[in-house]
Amino acid sequence: MELKKTQIENAIEILKNADGEDLQNILEIIGMDEQVLKQLIHTKMYRLKLIMDDAKAIKQFFNENDLN
User: Fold this and answer.
1) How much is the CA Rg of the chain, to the nearest whole Å?
2) Rounded to an integer, what distance in angstroms lies between the CA atom of residue 59 and that of residue 20?
3) Exposure on the CB side of residue 40, measured as CA atoms within 13 A
4) Residue 19 and residue 40: Cα distance in Å, rounded?
């Protein structure tokens, strides 16, 4: 089903004023709530890995340069 331009514009206006609960309800209705949750978890885990890699590099730099 392809949306008309006015339908897309109306949906955007509704979403501009939506809060978290509204968005959650919309995602549940269109069946994407689980997919979005999985993506958020994946993104958070990826970012955490990057932070941990940075922390290891900083610790190694400190150790190599006798910094406390």
Assistant:
1) 21
2) 39
3) 6
4) 18
